Amino acid sequence: xxxxxxxxxxxxxxxxxxxxxxxxxxxxxxxxxxxxxxxxxxxxxxxxxxxxxxxxxxxxxxxxxxxxxxxxxxxxxxxxxxxxxxxxxxxxxxxxxxxxxxxxxxxxxxxxxxxxxxxxxxxxxxxxxxxxxxxxxxxxxxxxxxxxxxxxxxxxxxxxxxxxxxxxxxxxxxxxxxxxxxxxxxxxxxxxxxxxxxxxxxxxxx
Amino acid sequence: xxxxxxxxxxxxxxxxxxxxxxxxxxxxxxxxxxxxxxxxxxxxxxxxxxxxxxxxxxxxxxxxxxxxxxxxxxxxxxxxxxxxxxxxxxxxxxxxxxxxxxxxxxxxxxxxxxxxxxxxxxxxxxxxxxxxxxxxxxxxxxxxxxxxxxxxxxxxxxxxxxxxxxxxxxxxxxxxxxxxxxxxxxxxxxxxxxxxxxxxxxxxxxxxxxxxxxxxxxxxxxxxxxxxxxxxxxxxxxxxxxxxxxxxxxxxxxxxxxxxxxxxxxxxxxxxxxxxxxxxxxxxxxxxxxxxxxxxxxxxxxxxxxxxxxxxxxxxxxxxxxxxxxxxxxxxxxxxxxxxxxxxxxxxxxxxxxxxxxxxxxxxxxxxxxxxxxx
Lengths: 206, 375
Fold this sequence. Notes:
- The complex is a heterodimer.
- Chain A is mainly α.
- Chain A has helices spanning 2-36, 40-55, 58-69, 73-97, 101-109, 114-147, 156-165, 169-197, 200-205.
- Chain A is 85% helix and 0% strand.
- In chain B, α5 (118-131) packs across α7 and α13 runs antiparallel to α14 (309-315).
- Classes of the chains: A mainly alpha, B alpha/beta.
């Protein structure tokens, strides 16, 4: 009973950590990309930065946060956020920029303002791509939240590392199995959601 | 926000020494063109000739490097581009319907942004759908992917007409359709063009489309304007080799739809006219002397009667006057469509008709000679 309460506690912590970071990632990424629509320099800067972070191993991202910000929950959130930035940025970017030029042209031609084009043409077009990015980011956040236990993020990662240091198989499994379950659950639920949210016209194309 | 159109009718659109270049390549070079209010002006040329650039400078989708574009005398640069575009209908080949909005959402998008209320938008949308021959009930709630190419193009036109703009810009609107559908939409467009009563600037690369729809046609080549004129002017007075090549004037018959009776008639001099009360035998001598196969009389009713030589022969010396033996004949105004005139001749089983310029007879139209002239 003690163990199961501990597992539940750790799982909740894990969830909270991963999804605070994911939310932070979305809140940072989407406006950045929207602003990039107005400035090519910003667009290339944002893309380069998120590509760079993606190229660095997750473990290094987590580690490098410590000398900069320290340890604990907030640094853990920032580390995860940095790591999930790319899939969200990249997909949002693709969604917003890969719009049929005829759509933009005709929207402009019938008298939509730049903002109205983003609101009525680019964003609706980008939803499926943004969603795919968020799905990928959610699964990524789940796995990096394990690593951030090393810098005091807590959660299931702490259990796993404790288990590893003590050769406590039960504890390792108590930490890893929920992580795997969460990953599977995320994948499944996002897929269902994705199918529900995809507009009719896109389903027919594939 | 209540929107006020920048103009309710078009007096004229003027492009004056307009130039636009990309790098060292001219898209449009020193172009002067005036579009008159109410006409359908065709811009035609090969791809890259500058016709689309010219069109897009009117609603400021492209800004000229130099020169002036004005509508009703006012420089378009002085207008807010968004307000300008909402006062001008715009239809492109790729249509650009928003896939996530249904037909009603697409047509009503600008109306919604203009703050119209839902009921009014719906009413306007059904009005427009009726206008483009799509039953509103079954089409309002469909999505673009559920429509055929032709239906999408109709929706594109309906959307362009939503704000009832006095000016329409159309960039190869029928270009992506298959030939049969294209012809059908062209025919329909011809009809609604009159109802619309709008000024239209229309880009195409299809000369048949140009002659079918256009009041005047502007031929562009290599970023410059080559010639502007009515289809007839271009066919009969091409300014250079390129124009005659484009309008294909050696094979005029293809453009018969654009020709008027005047273009193919034989001119008529007063020698063809005889006095109505002249006895047949005197007329016979006169006609034979002049080598006429046919003569005409003015009848008291104000109409013109036809006197074929064989009828005069038959009347012989019965003492009949020309009035007695004259036959009625078909009469066409000089600016009637040649094609329709020929059709009517054929239906009536006649081979000739009289052509009137105003009140006066000016020529004769012989169906067999027309065809010889054309082929």
